[in-house]
Design brief:
This protein is 35% helix and 19% strand. It is an alpha/beta fold and 273 residues long. Helix 1 (39-49) links the parallel strand 4 (30-33) and strand 5. The chain is globular.
Length: 273
């Protein structure tokens, strides 16, 4: 079911992966934020969009390269597809690894990806772009490295809505994968929040919508992780011992933090890519 989260702004929360998809409806054009995790899921989304508007989508935004946000793109080939250049670069370097990881995450995807035609962004957003939908604009911004090296968010300022992708999550702790940047991540979230007002509604990549206080609380926790890793690294604590060495400092469960520590040390050593 589509939920209107601001004037002309909608989100649909899918039980599968608990992922959010966003839509901004303008007088002349539609913008879709993320396309789900396979051509089958993308086709379901394309059909469900007719509940909102019979027009075809003219603009697709990919928040980042992870499969659950981008592999429905081929169902919207008539649209301009916006993304950070790093998204395309990651697929160029790691396509087979990424698809293998997706299949391992959910075996059912093996069938769904049989007809995949990898369809990547064809409009680059290195830092900032403005998409005109007729009676409103949507600002696409790369606020810096965080969940990945190329997260894009969509600010629909007139409606007081931000589609944040996986820079923020409501239903689980932030996901510190092997392509995240834990030390830089707090700065990206702070920059995102500085572009809001107290009344702004944030649509995270996963989970329910977030208020500004809820988003700030998660931003503080992300910063606490970065500060703890930086302190341990500066003290010469080996990464293998860092989790136990700062046992009382971590705001998230241990199983969330192994990837954060590994990547954080790489980031501080200058070897994270």
């Amino acid at each position: 079911m589509w939920q209107e989260v601001g004037d002309g702004c909608y989100r649909r929360r899918y039980e599968r992966y608990d992922v959010n998809v966003g839509v901004v409806r303008g007088s002349e054009r539609l913008l879709l934020f993320d396309t789900r995790g396979s051509p089958v899921q993308g086709e379901e989304l394309r059909h469900e969009l007719t509940e909102l508007d019979a027009r075809a989508v003219q603009h697709v935004v990919n928040s980042h390269w992870h499969f659950d946000h981008v592999l429905g793109n081929q169902c919207f080939t008539g649209a301009w597809r916006w993304g950070h250049p790093g998204l395309n670069e990651m697929f160029e370097r790691h396509r087979e690894v990424a698809l293998s990881w997706a299949r391992a995450y959910e075996p059912e995807l093996d069938r769904e990806l049989a007809g995949l035609e990898l369809t990547l962004p064809n409009r680059a957003v290195p830092d900032h772009a403005v998409v005109d939908l007729g009676d409103r604009v949507v600002e696409l911004v790369h606020h810096g490295r965080g969940h990945t090296g190329h997260d894009i968010v969509a600010h629909a300022r007139a409606a007081g809505v931000v589609f944040a992708g996986d820079l923020l999550e409501e239903s689980a702790p932030p996901s510190y994968g092997d392509d995240c940047f834990p030390i830089a991540w707090p700065n990206a979230v702070v920059a995102l929040l500085e572009a809001t007002t107290p009344e702004t509604t944030i649509v995270p990549g996963h989970g329910d919508v977030m208020s500004i206080p809820e988003a700030r609380a998660q931003a503080d926790a992300i910063k606490a992780v970065a500060d703890a890793i930086s302190g341990l690294h500066a003290a010469g604590e080996p990464a293998a011992h860092a989790l136990d060495a700062a046992a009382n400092q971590w705001p998230f469960p241990p199983d969330v933090l192994a990837g954060a520590i590994h990547r954080g040390y790489e980031e501080l050593d200058g070897t994270a890519q």
